[in-house]
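User: For a reading group we're discussing how well predicted structures match intuition. Take Energy-coupling factor transporter transmembrane protein EcfT. Before you show the prediction, I'll give you the sequence so everyone sees exactly what went in.
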Amino acid sequence: MNVIIGRYVPSNSVIHRMDPRAKLLTMFIYAASVFFANSSVTYAMSTVFLFILLLLLRVPFSFIMKGLRPVLWIVLFTFFLHAFLTKEGALLYQIGELAIYEGGLRKGVFISLRFLLLIVITTWLTISTTPVEVTDAVESIFGPLKRFRVPVHELALMMSISLRFIPTLMEETEKIMKAQAARGVDFYGGPFGERMKAITSLLIPLFIHAFKRAEELAIAMEARGYRGGEGRTKYRLLTWGWIDTWLLASTVGMTIVLLLFRT
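Assistant: Thanks. Here is the predicted 3D structure of Energy-coupling factor transporter transmembrane protein EcfT, as structure tokens, for the group to look at:
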């Protein structure tokens, strides 16, 4: 299962060399701006801006799309769910009890596109930023919260570990599905009850594997003397440059223009 969400792809692109704080803030601001998009023009602006960011990665676009295939079915399900259940505007097409209205079609396209853009911008961050850099960026941005006794370092570490283990869990899911299929389990056919049993035979081993991985990671960190972020020093220091300011200013500018073009 070729999943690239949560996976770092080495490259010498300008995005890879940027300060991780700039990339993390760009992701947050862009994700927030997507929720303000409510028309074809605003969604087109968001899509074009993200496409430019992907071009700057210098990673083949086909490679990115291939890695997003496992989540495309969720995007399609979101589209059809809104297309058939939202009954707004003029009736466009009807087959028996199923009807597609103009408002439902528009909402289905917008919501599914929003979901896809959020996935892609997250992938853009993880492709160009190592888990260590993500941890350092989160800890630096939310560092002032330490005054209020918020465990910023631990939260940042949890976030980076979660991103890192997404491809690992997806690969384990594929292995379990192949093993269960070899035993005669059908995940895609049969009655609804049989399919639920098949999913149960997948989820239980997957949860056991996840807990086992978490325990192994905890033991490894403890054996290496990890005691939290208190008193820790950093081997690599983050440096903010003009290109980071340019990226952040471009994202903020795009968001402002998007708000002006809202209907």
